[in-house]
Write a structure and sequence with these properties.
Layout: E1 2-5, E2 11-15, E3 17-18, E4 21-22, E5 42-43, H1 45-51, H2 57-65, E6 73-74, H3 84-89
Parallel strand pairs: 5-6
Antiparallel strand pairs: 1-2, 3-4
Length: about 100
């Protein structure tokens, strides 16, 4: 069980652990039917790439265009920027030779 307590010590939520995850099954929706953490509005492909956990640009555009991700509209004129975080995360090791030199 996860218990959320405010600064005054009052319990404001208790969330059960279901199969290793804490899930709020009866979450209240805002007036538009969205969730509290939902993204909205138009954004560039690079901004969506960063906000969605640095998934590939192709995956971002595919997921949004097919409706797997809702609440985000891509700016059609935006082009992918170089992502320094993704470049740093890639391996810098040289590839192994196909045959060893003897």
């Amino acid at each position: 069980m996860c218990t959320i307590i405010n600064l005054k010590g009052k319990t404001i939520a208790t969330i059960p652990n279901l199969e290793g995850l804490y899930r709020i099954s009866n979450a209240k929706l805002d007036e538009n039917g969205g969730y509290a953490a939902a993204a909205s509005g138009k954004m560039s492909i690079s901004e969506a790439h960063r906000k969605l956990g640095h998934i590939s640009y192709t995956a971002v555009s595919h997921a949004i265009s097919k409706g797997f991700i809702t609440g985000i509209a891509l700016n059609a004129s935006s082009k992918p920027d170089f992502c320094e975080a993704c470049a740093k995360a890639k391996s810098t090791r040289q590839p192994f030779l196909k045959e060893s030199k003897t």
